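4.2 Preliminary Data

To establish feasibility before requesting continued support, the project team ran the inverse folding procedure on a target of 672 residues. The structure was first converted into the token representation described in Section 3, and no sequence information of any kind was made available to the design step. The complete token record follows.
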């Protein structure tokens, strides 16, 4: 639960003996000057200086520390890619043999009313209230003790204190009865109950009205589409209670259909109407699962275990079809023994609901590049004309043995009648695309649409971010359509119509070319200058997906500690741009070397320009420019080695055709 905690200060207290004001003390750990002021020796790169039992004092406030699983210390991390070093105070959680590290802050005979941290903070306080979202403690105490619950990396600590005890309001205590709930489109939905202590009125809101809408007063929710949305409850501060905010997440899915007609598409944004039949799977284990971050079904076994499980389509009615064709994409790893026996496609014909015949279709295994453990994605197209007039069910049968336990990935399943022309929709502007469903073909009208950003990957695939007065969209152009992408120039203006296919990728809308796509009905105006970023707050990102935006006066925060020794690397750390309790994740999606590691920008307030994206239901910002008073953004990008090996997040080497998050040249990015 994200708390909005405000502390009521009396800035001026009229007393017969005079006036009393709040004072401040700031401990700085992320600069050599700050350490020098504290009398702490700056460590060598890749090393640390222990705080020990020394008491450190700034402006009347003292700080002492105890050790956790590792000594509490100043650490100087080194980024292996850029060579940039970063200083911070590290306080560690407990281990099996050692207690958790602590920090104790004391103002003597005065009262601490607020403690604001900068950096990564996961600690419990012995009094008052620590909001980990804003990294701020509020209360009224002469001494406050913080105990580490994870590894903390602290840049600064600012302590506010005063001569008299503060006046503390009550906690609003907003809380939903559940943090995550599931819903099915078209079925009744019961929202979690909200409890509260405050007397203030509650206001409800939804982060994604395409999935769920909510009555602002009652909190009643209506499920309108598949996807994820967060329902937030907010109360304002009043004379007795603090303000507060809490939320729960809805995961909405389409209803599972037992029988479908053509055209039928599935396995592109979820498991859909496919079902799983575990024939031989140990209790508590599974074979098939939907991988939402990469949008495919994955079947995999276990070492030393025989397993068998079927992924089954609903019944597909071909009685009215004349030339049905089934398409899907598959990918495998090298751990199959006999692919033909262990990864089978079975087509079952049904009469009156009973099986009348079964045929195992001989699939050809996807190809591997030399030395690779994963194959390329292979697109399959199977003529189903032999089944015209019938009802069929398609099964992907996975088997593993005690020695062979490959992984089989399936996505973008479809059955269409090639003799039936698709229903081409007409879309008047970019905002109108949201009315379409995945795989719809449409003629899109662009009116003074600007190319806000254009970027081409090492694989030759191009991401074109278009925006008009109604919204923004990503036009994802694979290298086979490179001639189309060449016409779009960053900053240029586009007018006219273009035939496209609408799709959903990583729960984001996108448009892609199809067989009818050309630029003959478009006109292109040369750019008059660089595209101008739209100034927004972090809270506005949901309404600006795919747009070029500028977010000002934010700090960059780091959430996780590198799992590889003490060197903080971009591969192991999540960074956020933050303004108070509002945050957006940063991701180097355009492979700019200066953004391989965001920690050098953690020295103060910055302005960020970039494209708003989404991954795993969380909004991200792909930075294009970070303006910082430290001028660290002037680092020159080295020439990248396009032939350098790629690795997945498990550290396995993969081919250039691998789809998903990869690491190359020491950088993490999405390979599409």
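Position-by-position output of the design step:
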């Amino acid at each position: 639960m994200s708390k909005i905690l405000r502390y009521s200060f009396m800035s001026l207290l009229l007393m017969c003996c005079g006036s009393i004001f709040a004072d401040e003390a700031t401990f700085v750990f992320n600069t050599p000057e700050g350490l020098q002021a504290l009398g702490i020796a700056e460590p060598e790169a890749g090393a640390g200086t222990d705080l020990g039992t020394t008491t450190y004092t700034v402006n009347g406030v003292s700080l002492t520390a105890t050790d956790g699983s590792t000594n509490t210390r100043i650490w100087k991390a080194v980024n292996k890619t850029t060579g940039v070093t970063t200083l911070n105070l590290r306080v560690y959680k407990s281990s099996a043999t050692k207690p958790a590290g602590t920090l104790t802050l004391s103002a003597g005979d005065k009262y601490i009313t607020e403690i604001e941290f900068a950096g990564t903070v996961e600690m419990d306080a012995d009094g008052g209230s620590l909001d980990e979202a804003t990294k701020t403690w509020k209360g009224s105490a002469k001494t406050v003790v913080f105990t580490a619950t994870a590894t903390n990396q602290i840049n600064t600590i600012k302590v506010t204190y005063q001569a008299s005890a503060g006046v503390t309001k009550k906690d609003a205590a907003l809380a939903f009865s559940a943090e995550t709930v599931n819903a099915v489109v078209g079925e009744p939905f019961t929202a979690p109950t909200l409890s509260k202590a405050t007397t203030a009125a509650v206001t409800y809101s939804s982060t994604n009205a395409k999935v769920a809408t909510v009555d602002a007063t009652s909190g009643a929710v209506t499920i309108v589409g598949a996807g994820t949305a967060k329902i937030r409850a907010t109360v304002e501060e009043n004379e007795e209670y603090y303000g507060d905010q809490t939320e729960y997440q809805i995961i909405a899915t389409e209803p599972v259909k037992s029988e479908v007609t053509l055209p039928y598409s599935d396995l592109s944004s979820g498991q859909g109407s496919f079902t799983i039949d575990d024939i031989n799977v140990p209790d508590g284990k599974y074979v098939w699962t939907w991988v939402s971050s990469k949008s495919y079904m994955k079947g995999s076994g276990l070492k030393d275990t025989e397993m068998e499980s079927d992924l089954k389509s609903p019944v597909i009615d071909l009685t009215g079809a004349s030339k049905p064709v089934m398409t899907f994409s598959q990918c495998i790893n090298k751990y199959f023994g006999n692919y033909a026996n262990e990864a089978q496609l079975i087509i079952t014909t049904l009469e009156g609901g009973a099986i009348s015949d079964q045929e195992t279709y001989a699939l050809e295994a996807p190809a591997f590049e030399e030395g690779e453990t994963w194959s390329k994605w292979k697109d399959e197209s199977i003529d189903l004309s032999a089944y015209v007039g019938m009802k069929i069910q398609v099964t992907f049968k996975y088997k593993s043995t005690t020695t062979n336990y490959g992984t089989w990935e399936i996505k973008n399943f479809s059955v269409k009648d090639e003799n039936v022309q698709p229903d081409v929709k007409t879309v008047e502007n970019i905002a109108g695309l949201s009315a379409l469903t995945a795989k719809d073909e449409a003629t899109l009208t662009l009116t003074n649409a600007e190319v806000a950003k254009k970027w081409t990957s090492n694989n030759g695939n191009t991401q074109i971010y278009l925006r008009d007065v109604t919204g923004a969209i990503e036009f994802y152009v694979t290298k086979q359509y490179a001639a189309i992408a060449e016409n779009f120039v960053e900053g240029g203006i586009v007018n006219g119509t273009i035939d496209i296919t609408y799709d959903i990728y990583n729960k984001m809308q996108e448009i892609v070319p199809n067989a009818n796509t050309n630029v003959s009905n478009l006109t292109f105006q040369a750019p008059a200058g660089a595209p101008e970023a739209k100034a927004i707050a972090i809270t506005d990102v949901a309404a600006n997906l795919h747009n070029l935006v500028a977010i000002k006066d934010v700090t960059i925060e780091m959430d996780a500690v590198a799992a590889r020794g003490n060197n903080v690397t971009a591969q192991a750390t999540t960074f956020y741009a933050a303004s108070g309790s509002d945050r957006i994740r940063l991701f180097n999606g355009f492979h700019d070397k200066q953004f391989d590691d965001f920690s050098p920008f953690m020295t103060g307030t910055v302005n960020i320009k970039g494209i708003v994206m989404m991954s795993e239901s969380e909004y991200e910002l792909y930075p294009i420019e970070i303006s910082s008073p430290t001028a660290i953004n002037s680092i020159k990008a080295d020439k990248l080695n396009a032939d350098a090996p790629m690795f997945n997040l498990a550290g396995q080497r993969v081919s250039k055709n691998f789809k998903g998050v990869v690491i190359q040249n020491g950088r993490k990015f999405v390979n599409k």
